[in-house]
Every structure is written in C-alpha cells, then in structure tokens.
Amino acid sequence: MKSYRGWKIAGTIGILTFLMTGTIPASAQAPATQPAAQQPAAGSAPAPLDLPPLPRNAPPPQRFGDWAKRCDVLPGKQIELCHLTQVLMHTRNEKRQGILMVRVGYYGDKKTPAVIMRVPLALGVYLPTGLTLTVPGTKPLKVAIESCLPQGCNASAKLPPAMVAAMKNANKGSVGLRTLRKQQIKLPVSFKGITAGLASLNKS
Number of structural domains, the chain? Predict the structure, then answer.
C-alpha cells in the first residue's frame, strides 16, 4: 500500500476523503444546492474543514458539475497526480460548513477503482463500524478504518465496477458513519459531473 502526503492509497482509482478543521477555499466548496446532512447530537458537532492550500500560482480547478479537478506533483517524482474533489457540507445552527472531502482519482493501471476516506478525529467516530458509501442501485460499500493520524483517520477500499457504473447513473448518494454516541450520520454526496470528470482523469 502506497503513502501519498499522509493518505493511504489502496487499489488504483478513486479516492474518497474525509478532512476537518479550518476553512474551505471557495474553489473547493460544494454547491449551495446540496442537501444538508443530518445533525449530530449536542457535544458531537464536527469542526469546519481544513483543506490544504493550492500551490502558489496554481490555476483554478477545472469544474465538472459538482466536482473540481485538482492536480499535484508527487514528491520527488516528475509525476502529476490528478483527482476530482467535492466537499460535503453539514448544517448546524443555520450555518453550513464543510466537514468531509470526497476525492476520486485514477492510480496505477487506471482500471481498478479504489476509495480512501479520512475521518476527522474531532467528529468522535466509532472506529469499529467504519464508513459506508451508499449509491442508489448497488450494494452499500463498507470501508474499514485502517489508521489514525493527528489530522484524522484513514479508511480505504476498492470501488467495485458496479458501484462506479451506478455513480455515473445516479444524481446523489451518501457517506454514512457512526458516532461514539451510537448516532448514525449521513452526509449527501452529489454525482453530478462524475462521468465527465472521470473521463478527464483518464486523459491526464
């Protein structure tokens, strides 16, 4: 399993990422029309998302529906790694904030999708349950949490071809998790633009 800037990369295509604390660059914010997530119980509210800044003089991300395309150069290598990103929003006390980032990208042979999630420690996630990616028309994908760093906990799993196909045909899905208080939280994710975005990554 490879490591890329703190992310554990399993498989070869997609990345689903959870991050937290800080503010969200306007270029990476989710659309205002995205539905609000279920609210956690008092005392377990997530902190705002802290995204890594874009490199100096970096061009604005290319948009594909509700996804933004970003590219980074691998440390020590002349290899550019591109991925799609989407910030999942949560509404609490009439304030919207990003608490989770979804990343989808191609790796290795560019054939087998994979998913990576980073869960913010501040959210108080019940680790044994892991995370669940739900897409209409296919079986929910359970994603085990593998390791934890100060920035959050990482989880990864390969995306089945049937789920990738379902994502291209669906409008939206969700990422679910369970808090230490045994409360289920579902964060909506939009698949608008995912087909064109993945096609763009194949050409990168």
Answer: 1
